[in-house]
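User: Please predict the structure of the protein below. I'd like the answer in structure-token form so I can feed it into my own downstream comparison script.

Assistant: Understood. Taking the following sequence of 342 residues as input:
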Amino acid sequence: MKIASALMLSEHQKALIKAACPDAEIVCPGQRPRSPVVWDHDVLDPLVKDADVLIGHRARAGLLEFAPRLRWIQFMGAGIDHLKLTDLLAQDRIILTNASDVSATWIAEYVLASMLLFTHRFHVTMAAQRRREWLGFGQFMMGVDGLRGKTVGILGYGSIGRETARLCQAHNMEVLALKRNPSHRADTSWIRPGIGDPQGVIPSRWYGPESRAELLAQSDYVVVSLPLTPDTHHFLGRREFEAVKRGAYLVNVGRGPIIDQEAMIEALKDGRLCGAGLDVTDPEPLNPESELWDMENVILTPHCSGARKTYYDVGCELIAENLRRLLEGRELINQIDRTHCY
């Protein structure tokens, strides 16, 4: 079996994969690609042409005609909205899996860090530090709050949402959860021990997409961890921001277009939202002219909430598990739902 990786895997990472299939031939680029999310034809085409398995963040248009032996593609990210640029969702003969849960722990930590940073007004003190200004204690008495006893509404109760819920529960927060089908509460994706909420027992209440205004009205913190699909584009628009609990704080670790950005900016200006932590924007990179850059109640990061130096080590553990399943003729985990595009 030939496994082509669009990523430069370390010897340790290759060993994790070969533990599942010792005879596998693993080929990687001889030089570092320009970007893990850009398909470099000169570097990657020769590797993939006769491969059985592909590992990477993206796939080229016309891939299956170019590489007819491909049986399975393991995407190394959770979001697969990029597949709309290919015909892979319409090709049932190829197995498509994503890396759901690989970065769930780190993204959930990012969510909590963003919430705590804002709650404790670190964004204010750090700005004052750069100005060499000592802010008095009294300025914080009426502004600093805590997470304990607050309500968090999580839009998208997948691996990231569930791990966020676990961390919020540890801070004695009430958790509200929204998912496409709230009656299906168990998690069927890849789950590492001690992570997330596998059986869906943490939320006190569950909501479907049509009930999101009710969730927003009760949430002190709103966490967006939805996938980007035709159904979730501008899932939060003007109507939703009118329903949001005044003074709520928003964290988006899903995709930028899930939120109507102009409507969010209006809500930040008039106080309906007291702040926002945005790891994703629309577009990316964010336009230099965007008002978000200068808003004191906004924290911006460049789509890096899942970044960690051991990301691909954990990803290769998932690949090894799926490779064992492939060789044994069992169903692979984290298979992409072609109907709902996630």
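That's the full token string. The chain has ten helices and twelve strands.
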